[in-house]
Structure formats: structure tokens, C-alpha cells
Amino acid sequence: MNNQVQANVHAQKRLMKRYTIGFSVWFTLLLAVSYAIPRYESVCLGLFIGGVASLIILHMQNRSVVRMYDVIETGRRPKSHGTVSRMAVGVLAVIVGLFYDDRVSLIAVVTGLIAGHIIQIGEFALAQLSRKRGEY
Description:
flat; mainly alpha
């Protein structure tokens, strides 16, 4: 069981690295659009704030999954799942959007919060295509 748990932890770390690369591409694209089309700067800034919050939430979720693997391996009682902390990060991003509503698009902040889910779905789709080709 120990080897399987360690393999799952390593797989989770590799997956988080791929998610981080996806976010890097997302942030680079936002930066390019912001410089190319200045009138969309507030939208890009909102997407960036939401995206950063989404990345933090995804990182916290990843840590929770790794902790659960540790619970499986050691048999200790599990710690909290961090649901409230993840929700607080999302709420904080929306509060920042509300506070700076003259410079940041609130709709873009909320859309940016969804970026983590979009990246996860894209990674899942790529993994399924790779499995069909026998590469994964």
C-alpha cells in the first residue's frame, strides 16, 4: 500500500505542475492582451485577480489531497479539508473587485475564479486524448 500511496502523491504533484504551467500560459495571454488592447485593461486585471485566487484555491485543494494520502498511509485522523479557507480566498478576490470597481471588472474577477476549473477540464481532455493514443 505504501508504494501505491507514494505513486499517487507523485502523480498529484506532477498534475499540479501541469496546472501551474496552464496558469502561466493564461497569465501570459492576459498580459499580452492587456498591452495589445489597452481598453480591456480592467477586464484583464479582473481576470488576473480571479486567476491568481483560483491558482491559490487549486494549490490549497492539492495540499488537501496530498494530506488525505498521508492519512491513508499512516491511518491517523484527518485534518480539516480547508473548504472554508478556499471559500475565503474566493470571497477576498470578489471583495478586492468590489473595492476597486473603478479599475477592475467584477464580472472578470468572477470569471477568473473559474479559470482553475477550465484548466482542469482542459488537462483532463488532454489526458484522455493521450490515453487513446497510448502516450499517457
